[in-house]
Design brief:
Largest sheet: 5 strands, mixed, barrel
Strand order of the largest sheet: 5-8-7-6-9
Strand content: 25-35%
Helix content: 25-40%
Order of helices and strands: HEEEEHHEEHEHEHEH
Bound molecules: hypoxanthine
Structural class: alpha/beta
Shape: globular
């Protein structure tokens, strides 16, 4: 048995969590058992973007066994949809059945202030890519983000007095932020937040039969809504502040979400 197989048979993580830009502070709430660098696994791509360390963290969050993927790769780095979603296939291969995807996003909804969280109800995949290209894989996407998990997370957030909106995430290619005209278009499409990740991973996870939840950390007003120009540093700083709320929410909600299903 190799190190990874030994870890899995000891811990049995049913939950996978993918951490987005600047959300590494969630790790502070994890009782860590072991860490495995992406570079130590077979063929998992490693990101070079600030705020995206590439490793799996095995441990317990709220007492629940989890494996956390810290650092993802993005289409805008020149990666393919297959590379972007390799981590999701890897987690599913480890036996993960439920996946929490997190990201940093710009808010498009005037009622959703920066510094708060949004639970994904649905998404718009505007990347022009899909990890399922190449196979006749006509999967149903009508309930991509589990209604059961959404209900659970919303009720725990209310109890914990954590502001948790629910809305539609628009996934775009990037890496440039949007123009004000693009922001108006996305609002017209019914999107509440915009970011450069998550949608391909959600598609891959659903194709593998995983139960999926998505959280956007609303780090900034999308271009043209606020007055300040957007900066990656602002995204990281807001994410770091909001990460504590997510850690608290997950550590309260995971024990319950694992029980009643
Ligand atoms: N647009 C796209 N991606 C983002 C943003 C944004 O405003 N903020 C954080 N990620």
């Amino acid at each position: 048995m190799n190190e990874l197989e030994a870890l899995i048979s000891d811990l049995h993580p049913e939950w996978g969590i993918v951490l987005g830009s600047g959300l590494g502070a969630v790790i502070e709430s994890v009782e860590i058992v072991s860490e495995v660098a992406y570079s130590a696994t077979d063929g998992l791509p490693v990101s070079r973007v600030t705020g995206h360390a590439g490793k799996f963290i095995f441990g317990r969050l709220g007492g629940v066994p989890v494996v956390i993927a810290q650092g993802r790769v993005h289409l805008y780095e020149g990666r393919t949809a297959g590379e972007v979603t390799a981590g999701v296939r890897f987690l599913a291969g480890l036996g993960v059945r439920r996946l929490v995807l997190t990201n940093a996003a710009g808010t498009l909804n005037p009622r959703f202030a920066p510094g708060t969280w949004m639970l994904l109800r649905d998404h718009l995949n505007l990347t022009g890519a899909s990890p399922l290209v190449g196979g006749p894989h006509f999967i149903d996407m009508s309930e991509t983000y589990s209604p059961r998990l959404r209900e659970k997370f919303a009720s725990v957030a209310a109890r914990e007095r954590i502001v948790l909106h629910e809305g539609v995430y628009a996934g775009v290619l990037g890496p440039q932020y949007e123009t004000p005209a693009e922001v108006r278009m996305l609002q017209g499409f019914g999107a509440d937040a915009v970011g450069m990740s998550t949608v391909l991973e959600a598609i891959q996870a659903r194709a593998l039969g995983l139960e999926v939840a998505g959280f956007s950390c609303l780090t900034n007003w999308a271009a043209g809504i606020g007055s300040a120009p957007l900066a990656h540093q602002e995204v990281l700083a807001t994410g770091a502040q909001a990460a504590g709320d997510l850690a608290r929410l997950l550590s309260r909600a995971l024990p319950q979400a694992a029980i009643d299903q």
